[in-house]
Design goal:
The chain has 425 residues and is of the alpha+beta class. The chain has two domains: 4-104, Helix Hairpins (Orthogonal Bundle); 118-421, Bira Bifunctional Protein, Domain 2 (BirA Bifunctional Protein, domain 2). It is 42% helix and 19% strand. An eight-stranded mixed β-sheet has the order 1-8-9-10-13-7-6-2. Strands 5-11-12 form a three-stranded mixed β-sheet, with no helix packed on it. Strands 3-4 form a two-stranded antiparallel sheet. α4 (28-66) runs antiparallel to α5 (71-104). The protein is elongated.
Length: 425
């Protein structure tokens, strides 16, 4: 949530920043300014009337004590009280309108984020060299089927398109990836592992910015709970309404969960195999930090996600997203894209984002800079560390061999119990 004081004091700057994301949204800044002005005018009148009421109440007491007639003054006091009640009702209504509007305004992109849409994304760097195969590389759905790892038709029968079924060594591969990533992030990167619920309430979804903006992409139960689209939602809300000790920061959590997304575009292009699915597994990384360390924390977080891809020997590139094409709550996002030779394209496997104090304001997550000082909002960050389906795509397609087998990277082999997947195994 944006700070209303920032909107009040610098409306043109906020409007210009939001216009980099969506011009139509930027126009709502004027509405927020008007509601804030109306709210403050009502508050000022209420305070003035309360002061008058207090003064007149004292005069009523004095008159009664001295035996003077106080009826007229009592009538005036009732009129003041009635007016205060009316204004309190007006204030409640305006507060509700302003709060609802602020919930609908996205975060401001940081200054170093390029303007524009997908065409303005910047490839910052790349790691690894895509292999030049001496045979035609197969797509992952052919490899997964031939190796007995993947049964997409049965997954569709069980639930529907976009719900894959991993079997045999494929199921073990999912489990191996989870253990490998969690061990890497907890043992080497200092994260605390958590196993959060896969259902959250509306307050949690609102706290991270899924509500109201992304509700149409979420699965909701009959009793109003939401299946998580990412572990970012429950993990960030661990500290909703908390005041963290300054010496505890940064706080870092890693979580392995299934994720569920309706994905409005999932019935369009790029839907074959595992490229775009409604249910998938992911290890998520969430960090809470002081505002002044936020830029460095973002780079650190990105490096932790990159470490996974390097250990797995997957060529990847780092892309800085443009302001018009990243998440509602984000102020700056890096995407990690792996090369998938079987489908001949780069696939996003991680988004590493900084939210500045946007989520912290919505979820009321604060810290006390010094003992006895006024609490301030933390900064929150998160990244996929990393998402499984497209990582599995890249693993199978990059490490396939001419005989149809797939080599398993050295870092992953101990978790899977083999260094090769093949029809004979």
């Amino acid at each position: 949530m944006l700070d209303i004081r920032l909107i009040r004091e610098s409306p043109d700057a906020v409007r210009a920043a939001l216009a980099r994301r969506a011009p139509a949204v930027a126009e709502r800044v004027s509405e927020a300014v008007a509601l804030d002005r109306q709210r403050r005018e009502i508050l000022a009148e209420v305070e003035r009337l309360k002061a008058d009421r207090n003064l007149h109440s004292g005069e009523v007491g004095r008159r009664k004590k001295s035996g003077e007639d106080a009826a007229a003054l009592l009538g005036a006091l009732k009129g003041v009280s009635d007016r205060i009640k009316t204004l309190d009702d007006d204030l409640h209504a305006v507060d509700g309108q302003l709060s609802e509007l602020l919930l609908q305004l996205p975060n401001l992109p940081l200054a170093d984020v390029p303007s524009g849409g997908p065409d303005a994304h910047r490839v910052l760097r790349a790691w690894g060299t895509p292999l030049a195969f001496d045979f035609t590389p197969k797509p992952h759905w052919e490899l997964g089927t031939a190796l007995g790892l993947l049964d997409l038709p049965t997954g569709a029968k069980l639930t529907g398109s976009g719900f894959p079924l991993f079997i045999g060594a494929g199921a073990r591969l999912v489990r191996a990836l989870a253990n490998f990533m969690l061990d890497l992030h907890t043992r080497e990167h200092g994260y605390v592992e958590v196993a959060p619920p896969c259902l959250v309430n509306a307050d949690s979804a609102r706290g991270t910015g899924q509500l109201p903006d992304l509700e149409s992409n979420m699965y909701v139960t009959g009793d109003g709970l939401y299946l998580i689209p990412t572990a970012e939602v429950p993990v960030t809300n661990i500290h909703r309404d908390d005041i963290l000790a300054a010496d505890r920061l940064p706080v870092a959590y890693a979580a392995f969960t299934p994720c569920f997304r309706r994905e409005a575009g999932a019935h369009g292009k790029d839907t074959r195999g595992l490229i775009r699915v409604h249910q998938f597994d992911k290890v998520e990384l969430v960090r809470f930090c002081r505002p002044e360390t936020s830029p460095a924390e973002h780079e650190l977080l990105l490096g932790h996600a990159e470490a996974v891809l390097r250990r797995l020997g997957l060529p990847y590139r780092v892309v800085l997203l443009a302001a018009g094409d990243f998440g509602f709550a984000s102020a700056k996002t890096y995407d990690l894209e792996v090369w998938a030779p079987g489908v001949g394209t780069w696939l996003e496997v991680s988004s590493a984002s900084t939210y500045t104090d946007f989520q912290a304001r919505r979820a009321n997550i604060r810290y006390r800079p010094a003992p006895g000082s006024k609490p301030e909002f933390v900064h929150t960050l998160n990244a996929s560390g990393v998402a499984f389906p497209r990582t599995i795509i890249a693993l199978l397609e990059n490490h396939q061999r001419a005989d149809g087998s797939v080599a398993i990277p050295e870092a992953l082999a101990p978790y899977l119990g083999t260094d090769r997947l093949g029809p004979s195994r």
